[in-house]
Amino acid sequence: DAKTTQPNSMESNEEEPVHLPCNHSTISGTDYIHWYRQLPSQGPEYVIHGLTSNVNNRMASLAIAEDRKSSTLILHRATLRDAAVYYCILEDISNFGNEKLTFGTGTRLTIIP
Amino acid sequence: NAGVTQTPKFQVLKTGQSMTLQCAQDMNHEYMSWYRQDPGMGLRLIHYSVGAGITDQGEVPNGYNVSRSTTEDFPLRLLSAAPSQTSVYFCASSQPVSYNSPLHFGNGTRLTVT
């Protein structure tokens, strides 16, 4: 299974953009890139996902490198509520479903007021 | 809109006791799964189900049983609790990947086995 590598922790100032990197050098052509985050004392929540093209939604943007070996989750204007552990996960679209996502240890994002 | 509901929120067991962690979803999702999260670690898959009557093992299934008699419910049973099962347990549900549907998680059950 393709694996991802993320920094253990990052800090960012409130109201500034945050770029969370993820390396996935062994990604296959059928792997989706998913991002989830986990706020303190809560279950993970979906943030965004993509396959090849950059993606935007109300929470964040996902920038995918042209060779797909890395991606970056972009929070455009961080708030204190964005302090969480962010997980970058690969899921093969040829799988029956995404019930078997493999969560690593993620990046712990700290927002400085 | 309740989403994924887990009960209880907290539970303390003695070694050897049995219990069932409940999970219910009201989104008519076909897929449901159970994860455990230990301190400083990511989530590890215990068991999953792709529909009523169908279950399969994940990464760490030993010591746990599951069944899926309805679409809505996916209980996790500990037949003889051990201290190594002290963890936070998360239930999740989703639709097939063709629906482009993400995983929806409950808020977890914190289990302590003494």
Task: Report on this structure.
The complex is a heterodimer of chains A (113) and B (114). With 113 residues, chain A is mostly beta strands. Chain A has strands spanning 9-13, 18-23, 31-38, 45-50, 55-56, 61-64, 70-75, 84-92, 107-112. In chain A, strands 1-9-8-3-4 form a five-stranded mixed beta sheet, with no helix packed on it. In chain A, strand 6 and strand 7 form a beta hairpin. Chain A is globular. By secondary structure, chain B is an all-beta fold. In chain B, 0% of the residues lie in helices and 49% in strands. Chain B has strands spanning 4-7, 10-13, 19-25, 31-37, 43-51, 54-57, 64-66, 76-78, 87-94, 104-105, 109-113. In chain B, the strands form two sheets. In chain B, strands 2, 4, 5, 6, 9, 10 and 11 form a seven-stranded mixed beta sheet that branches. The radius of gyration of chain B is 13 Å and the shape is globular. The A-B interface holds A 32, 34, 36, 41-46, 49, 87, 91, 93, 95-106 and B 4, 30-33, 35, 40-45, 48-50, 58-59, 90, 92, 94-97, 101-108.
What percent of the residues of chain B sit in helical stretches (DSSP H or I)? under 10%
Compute the CA-based radius of gyration of chain B: 13 Å
Order of helices and strands of chain B: EEEEEEEEEEE
Strand content of chain A: over 45%
- Biggest sheet of chain A, open or closed, and with what strands and sense? 5 strands, mixed
The main pleated sheet of chain B reads as: 7 strands, mixed
Instruction: Note the overall shape of chain A.
Output: globular
Pairing-aware structural class of the strands and helices of chain B?
mainly beta
Number of strands of chain A: 9
Helix content of chain A: under 10%
| Widest beta sheet: strand line-up of chain A | 1-9-8-3-4
Radius of gyration of chain A: 13 Å
Mean pLDDT of chain A: 91
Number of helices of chain A: 0
Amino- and carboxy-terminal Cα gap of chain B: 36 Å
Order of helices and strands of chain A: EEEEEEEEE
Biggest interface, CB < 8 A: A-B, 25 and 31 residues
Mean pLDDT of chain B: 93
Low-confidence stretches of chain A: none
Classify the oligomer. heterodimer
User: Which structural class best describes the helix and strand composition of chain A?
Assistant: mainly beta
